[in-house]
Design brief:
The chain is of the alpha/beta class. 24% of the residues lie in helices and 27% in strands. It folds into two domains: 163 residues, Jelly Rolls, CATH 2.60.120; 244 residues, Alpha-Beta Barrel (TIM Barrel), CATH 3.20.20.140.
């Protein structure tokens, strides 16, 4: 009888304790993470941990809505991932991986969903991260800057490889991939199930009709290197659009004279602009404008940017006049045929790309307005080969331009066959521009892969001498 009463007491006590524990779950309170378990039953009691390749350490509890904060430290070539809503294979992965812009996804990436290609953190330095899951929204901050704001739609697009990359609930885990990555000062704040991110005001992308998420799922780098802050496009708006669309932006002013929008006039202005954008979550580019920029700016000043590009939309025409061929009033034939004008335009393009230390040939194969209807005729095999020759010789990437829908798929295929690398670019005039639709079509139509794409780590422009080849 005594034993029966004792067992009844234990049962009631256990039920009471369960009720108390459930009712005492703390919401909105940052709690330190000081216990980690692995799949083999090993346990670590510490608020800091070093993860090695092929190891995964789990936080004991399960979470749905939460904020995870902490610090991480990477060495060169080391890489880890923070898994969440996971059982070890399911859920999302947040990349921890710094280093050069080389086409691998970088710190802050929501892997295969919102890949990032420039990190706001550096190797051999502790940096802060914040991961927030609220309702259908996932946001990531690195060193205080938001780099991901992704809202999972009702019908997300997922390939078979990423079919389980969905929100739900589950554990948080730290997974080692390469080298050693350290974590410390980890805190998690739990929120109630009905919590939403009030700052998430942009509509979720319809992923069933979106080409960008398909490239992300293939780990194909999606970078628009040719974005200008003009026509109402501010840094803040570009930031929001980039995160919403899943397109990394390379933001670039014009350096030189004769262009449209913000123009940098000297080294002092170049450095001042760089200071403005160095901590923004963009790739940092600059466009050489006009034909005098190589004598206006030092290589040291332009060298602080991730990449440099130029085009042949401004030429010295056959009578020695500076001509912006995108302005019909500046295109003068003056006694020569359009075929002869085309020969001169190709001569100028080859001269520009041979002598100006650009990484990317932008707005490629652009023609004056009254010649565009005969694009394929003017861009003959001979003309194409002359331009591709210089791109190949100078290791210059060929931009696939979404705004003008150039170059043609035929030229892209011929460039690919030569091993020439590519970039995507828009060259927007305002804040109302698309989502690289022509570039997405080119990937499929021309069989492009990630290996065909150019990245700033491939740049050789700093080794090219400055040549003053145009004199007026």
């Amino acid at each position: 009888m005594i034993m029966k009463n004792f067992l009844s007491f234990l049962l009631v006590t256990a039920c009471f304790c369960t009720i108390v524990l459930e009712s005492c779950t703390q919401y909105g309170v940052a709690e330190p993470i000081d216990t980690f378990n692995d799949m083999q039953g090993n346990s670590i009691q510490s608020n800091g941990i070093t993860v090695n390749p092929d190891t995964t350490w789990f936080v004991p509890n399960e979470y749905r809505n939460f904020v995870l904060t902490g610090e991480a430290y990477t060495q060169p070539h080391s890489e880890a991932a923070i898994l969440f809503h996971t059982d070890g294979t399911s859920g999302y992965a947040l990349a921890i991986h710094n280093g050069a812009i080389d086409g691998t996804h970088k710190t802050g990436s929501l892997v295969a969903i919102r890949n990032l290609y420039r990190s706001l953190a550096e190797d051999n330095e502790w940096f802060n991260f914040k991961l927030s899951v609220q309702g259908h929204n996932i946001s990531v901050c690195i060193n205080g800057t938001e780099v991901v704001c992704y809202t999972e739609p009702d019908k997300p697009y997922r390939t078979q490889a990423y079919a389980q990359r969905l929100l739900g609930s589950g554990r948080i885990a730290l997974q080692g991939i390469k080298g050693k990555v350290k974590f410390r000062n980890l805190y998690v704040t739990r929120f109630k199930d009905n919590t939403i991110n009030a700052s998430d005001t942009l509509p979720a992308v319809n992923e069933q009709a979106d080409g960008i998420i398909r490239l992300q799922q293939q780990n194909f780098p999606v970078i628009d290197y040719h974005v200008h802050l003009k026509g109402g496009l501010t840094k803040e708006l570009a930031h929001a659009m980039s995160m919403n669309y899943g397109i990394n932006y390379g933001v670039a002013p014009n350096a030189g004279e004769g262009g449209v929008g913000r123009m940098l006039a000297n080294d002092r202005e170049v450095y001042a602009y760089f200071d403005e954008v160095k901590d923004m979550p963009f790739l940092r580019g600059v466009q050489g404008e006009g034909r005098k920029w190589t004598s206006t700016f030092s290589q040291e000043a332009l060298g602080v940017f991730d990449y440099l590009f130029t085009d042949a939309m401004t030429i010295v025409d056959h009578k020695g006049r500076l001509s912006r061929i995108y302005r019909p009033e500046e295109v003068h034939y003056d006694g020569i045929t359009k075929e002869e004008y085309m020969d001169h335009l190709v001569d100028q393009t080859v001269k520009i790309l041979t002598n100006e230390p650009a990484d990317i040939y932008a707005n490629p194969t652009y023609l004056p307005e009254d010649m565009q209807a005969d694009y394929d005729r003017y861009w003959s095999d001979e003309h194409i080969d002359r331009v591709l020759d210089v791109l190949e010789q100078q290791h210059i990437a060929l931009e696939i331009n979404a705004r003008y829908q150039i170059p043609s798929f035929d030229i892209i295929r011929r460039a690919k066959a030569r091993g020439i690398k590519f970039t995507f670019g828009t060259n927007n005039v305002d804040a109302d521009f698309g989502r690289l639709e022509y570039c997405v079509k080119a990937v499929e139509a021309c069989g492009l892969t990630a290996d065909d794409m150019w990245f700033p780590s491939m740049s050789i422009r700093r080794s090219r001498p400055t040549v003053i080849y145009n004199r007026w």
